[in-house]
Amino acid sequence: MREPVSLLPRRPRPEDSAPRDPIVQLCSFVVGKEEYVVDIMRVEEILPPQRVIPVPRAPSFVEGMLHLRGALLPVVDLRQRLMTTEAPLSPKTRLLVCLLGRRRLALRVDRVTEVMRVRRSDLKPAPALLSPGRAPFVVGLCGTLERPRLMLDIKALLRAEVERESKRTGGAA
Prior knowledge:
The protein is mainly beta. The chain is built from three helices and eleven strands, in the order αβββββαββββββα. The termini are far apart.
C-alpha cells in the first residue's frame, strides 16, 4: 500500500540544509608535457586542425584567423603562448573554440584528453606568488599528485600577453 501524498510543504531535514559541494566539468588538454584544464562552459566545440589565415603584425602567439561558418576567429597557439616553442601539427592536435564574454576564439592544443567532473572542493587555488605583478593565468590545480592539471584562466592568459605586446610595439597591437 502506498503512502498518501502530502501537498503541504515538508519540514526541512538536517541533510537538506547542509551546504552542497557542486560538481564542475572541465575540459582537459595537453600542451607540451603539461596537462591543463578550462571550464567546459567556456568550450563551444572541439575541432580537428583547420586552415588558418595568417595575419600580418599579429601578436606572436596569434597564429592567424580561422573562418568558421561565416565568422572569423583568432587562433591562439597555446604552445607558443605558454612555452615559446613551436610544434608540428599532429593527428591529435585540436582547436578548442572558446567563448570569452561575447567573443569567440580558437585555442590550438596538442591534444584533448577528456572532459572531467570534479567537486568544486577538489579545486585548489594557485599560490599568489606564481605571477607576481601580473594577472595570473594559472588559477589553480586539480587532479591527483600523479597526474596534476593546471587550471587556466583564458582571459588572464590573453590579457597579459596583449598588454605586453602592446607595450613592445608602442600601442599598435
